[in-house]
Amino acid sequence: MSLATNGIDFGAAVPRAEGGEPGARGPERTHLAAQGVTVRYGRNAAIKGVSLKVPEHRVTALIGPSGCGKSTFLRLFNRMNDGIEGISIEGRVFLYDQDIYARDTDAVALRRRVGMVFQRSTPFPKSIYENVAYGLRIAGVRDRSEIARRIEESLVGAGLWDEVKDRMHDSAMGLSGGQAQRLCIARAMAIRPEIILMDEPASALDPIATARIEDLISSLKSRYTIVIVTHNLQQAARVSDYTAFFYMGELVEFAPTQALFTNPGESRTEEYITGRFG
Ligand SMILES: Nc1ncnc2c1ncn2[C@@H]1O[C@H](COP(=O)(O)OP(=O)(O)O)[C@@H](O)[C@H]1O
Ligand SMILES: [Mg+2]
Questions:
Q1: 124 Cα–ligand 2 center, Å
Q2: 3-class DSSP state for residue 82?
Q3: Which of 93, 159, 214, 228 keeps 20 to 30 A from 202, CA to CA?
């Protein structure tokens, strides 16, 4: 056991999904890990002693009723909780073997590796081009042809290029809700992160736009590790490889998605997924 990783074996395989995809997928490396994490807002503990390993190049869903701590937990991975008044964080959070909350960890550099897409897709009141370029400039990309290349690459990746390529300099405010959400995903992708955190990315969208986002998420996992918060159980079942069920700040169960939904190990999980509360 090395001190640097505090006992987390980053080479270790996490359990493979039973009856999962055909063909050997190989061992899964842990990309993000929480170890004994407690988060309090003042005296109120929103996350209570949670340990969880997020595997690389998989989609991990965080589910549970409103207020159970999903967003708080997600935000730990790119330090988006930093600066909230009265917050305290105990325990450790890792990106590979890097301690995310170590004194010498640069939060700006961390957010370049761990991108985030929020529930409300809010393009800036600027052009489509500028909306994606913005994040690149923040990340220090100055070269104009490099910016143009990355904008196209990320819009293609987000499945939006064909719809916007002839109106890149029109206002992003003219996009539909689903297009705006894909624009925000492109904005996150343009920085070329390793990980994309998504907090209820489809909760404000109609079923067709939601299906497009779900297809996109599935297509992205070959290149990114994705952690998605959703209160939509069918969505978690459709898009994720692993599911973590949170209840009142505790991690009740973490398992391959298929196993969690068909054969939950905990009675509270079963009650939740069968709709007896939530
Ligand atoms: N900025 C904040 N200040 C104080 N309490 C907060 C803040 N954000 C969330 N909380 C509280 O923490 C708990 C978990 O919230 P949250 O992480 O948003 O849950 P979820 O995303 O599952 O709905 C809730 O009780 C909520 O009221
Ligand atoms: Mg939330």
A1: 22
A2: coil
A3: 93
Q: Which residues of the chain have pLDDT under 70?
A: 1-26
* Residue among 214, 178, 188 nearest 78 (CA): 188
CA 159 to ligand 1 centroid distance, Å: 32
CA-CA-CA-CA torsion for 184, 187, 188, 194, nearest 10 degrees? 140
Ligand 1 atom closest to residue 62's alpha carbon, by position in its atom list: 22
SS3 91: strand
Half-sphere exposure of residue 157: CA atoms within 13 angstroms, side-chain side: 23
pLDDT of residue 204: 86
Q: Alpha-carbon distance 67 to 70, whole Å?
A: 7
Secondary element (H or E) of residue 134: helix 128-138
Query: For a pocket test of ligand 1, which of 37, 41, 119, 230 has the largest count of ligand atoms closer than 8 A to its C-beta?
Result: 41
* Single pTM value for the model: 0.90
d(CA 267, CA 278): 14
Element (H, E) at 39: strand 30-41
Which residues make beta-bridge pairs with 247? 250
Ligand 1 nearest atom to the CA of residue 84, by list position: 1
- Nearest ligand, CA of residue 68? 1
Residues flanking ligand 1, CB < 6 Å: 41, 46, 64, 66-72, 84
pLDDT of residue 9: 46
Pick the CATH number of 30-273 from 3.30.70.920, 3.40.50.300, 3.40.50.2030, 3.40.720.10: 3.40.50.300
- 33, 53 Cβ separation under 8 angstroms: yes
